[in-house]
Design brief:
Length: 300
């Protein structure tokens, strides 16, 4: 078994056929088929069932695919890491993260990285849920990840401190005339701008509202984090979102929660930090400057 055979197998699965895979890999179809046949012979059985139209993975193929894909991705990253160790300013950094973090803290970090290393290309992989983020990175996607502190992680982790969520109120909401810190229970009668049920933030917002004694009634759902702020500022209802994603022109509409909603963030990778990963880590905030809010309602 060799890396080329794994690359061929993954390409056939991704392209849904031998012809398209051969075209993508710039090899002849007979050569590709021969390599896969040798791989199947070594493994002792078929990985792919050839159908009249298309193909289908056998049970062995389904079991083999995740490991083959992880090996191919790891080999590509190893190649890039070796090259970037010599040429830090010409590498590509793959970053996996949550949608809300991509909107909030990453723009400034990437700008800083690019100012220090203008030749670096950053590829983002964005996820709705922390679980799928962790599974993807564990499976070989991306050089590093930024998200909530991962569960049962074997690789290096850098603590990035705490991210606090805030209220953003409509311009005509009477609560803006009151104190800068608001008891969430006093907003139980409002119609809310809420994350879509499929969004990773949805259970966080729902959880803190229920902890305050009510289930938020929706005025609108959206899967876009930046749209939460815009819809609330347009008068559709209050919303809860990370403080670092609030646009500067609507910060005057924000209020802190009496019991803050917060989550701990981390930068993490599978094995060792690459030179580009270390350079990127240096652009992120210091954990000591983002402390856990007092009496926080902590979310995972």
């Amino acid at each position: 078994m060799n890396l080329r055979q794994l690359q061929y197998f993954v390409a056939v699965v991704d392209e849904g056929g031998f012809t398209r895979a051969a075209q993508r890999l710039f090899v002849s179809q007979p050569s590709l088929s021969k390599q896969l046949a040798q791989l199947e012979a070594e493994l002792g059985g078929a990985l792919i069932e050839r159908l009249h139209r298309g193909l289908r993975l056998t049970p062995s193929g389904r079991a083999f695919l995740p490991e083959a894909r992880a090996a191919v991705l790891s080999a590509e990253r190893a190649r890039r890491a070796a090259r970037s160790a010599h040429e830090l300013d010409t590498g590509t950094l793959e970053v996996a993260t949550l949608l809300s973090i991509a909107v909030g803290m990453l723009p400034r970090a990437i700008q800083t990285l690019r100012s220090r290393h203008p030749g670096v290309l950053v590829d983002l992989h964005e996820f709705r849920h922390r679980k799928t983020l962790e599974e993807a990175v564990r499976g070989g996607l991306a050089d590093l990840a930024i998200g909530p502190v991962p569960v049962e992680w074997d690789g290096p982790i850098i603590n990035l401190g705490w991210e606090e969520f805030v209220l953003l109120l409509p311009p005509d909401d009477p609560a803006l005339e009151g104190p800068r810190t608001i008891d969430l229970a006093t907003l139980a009668d409002r119609r809310w701008v809420l994350p879509a049920p499929s969004a990773g933030m949805a259970p966080l917002v729902d959880g803190v509202c229920r902890e305050a004694g009510f289930a938020p009634a929706p005025a609108v759902h959206t899967s876009q984090v930046d749209a939460l702020a815009r819809f609330a500022a347009a008068g559709l209802g209050p919303t809860i979102l990370p403080a670092n994603v609030v646009p500067p022109d609507v910060k005057r509409l924000t209020r802190r929660l009496e019991r803050p909603l917060a989550r701990q963030l981390a930068l993490y990778t599978r094995s060792e930090w690459t030179p580009l990963g270390e350079a990127f880590a240096a652009t992120l905030w210091d954990a000591t400057s983002a402390r856990r809010p007092r009496n926080a309602f902590v979310v995972p």
